[in-house]
What we know:
- By secondary structure, the chain is an alpha/beta fold.
- The chain has helices spanning 43-56, 58-70, 87-95, 108-120, 159-169, 187-200, 205-208, 210-217, 221-230, 252-255, and strands spanning 2-5, 10-13, 17-18, 27-28, 76-81, 99-105, 127-131, 144-150, 170-181, 236-241, 244-249.
- It contains 10 helices and 11 strands.
- Strand 5, helix 3 (87-95) and strand 6 form a beta-alpha-beta unit.
Amino acid sequence: MSIILGSSLLKEVKRSPLRFWGGWFMVILMNERISEAGVIEDRELAEYYSLMAKKHMRIPCQRVLSRIKAKGIHQGNCLDVGTGPGIFPIYLSKVLPEIRFKAIDLSPIMVDIARKNATEAGINDKIDFQAGSAYSLPCEDRSLDLLLCINTLHHLDRPVEFFNEVARTLKVGGSFVIVDFHRDVSLIWIGLFNLFWKLFFRKHPKAKEGFIESVNSSYTLDECRTFLNQSKLTNWKLYTRTIEMWIESISIRNAE
């Protein structure tokens, strides 16, 4: 359900835009999820996303790092699922050099860009970038100390299968951090972030609409709780931070 903001009016409707400033603050949110393509095949678009990510993703990287440190993880094996241009594992491998990173993405173009970004950062030998699927993680059973999945869940039409793969590949007591948008977020937050997104990506017509497409493809909190409960993944907590939904492991001791 969407909300239209007027100068002094809030009106609930099933499908309506929020717009002012000549369309810069336009939002259309849907009741039903609209699946978003998970593979970027346009190299020029992928290169543009990579450039913007390198410029603006430092704070999100620091937030994920804080959660990893809070779990006491400083060594071991980590898999980043849906790595895109590789910004997160590149940043994290610099500050957590004892963690061995593997990173996968469904797009061979993104994998190629991620490898180039790692070479540019001087750590091309520290991260194993591969083309791979979230439904068939390239890891042995009980082999991972940490799994990351940042802004990828909304690309997955079968999240229970992915959660089952997370459960399969994590060691006993292993940790995970999964972050994504959620479709039932306040429209006020969505409008504000959509405005900032369009300002940042204003030079690329395809990228400029990417935020709302991703939100409409994301899951609600209740949907995600249902998927988690249907999966083999246990000892998790789900909470929100503004437009984001965070799913994290909790220690067995805390879960008892």
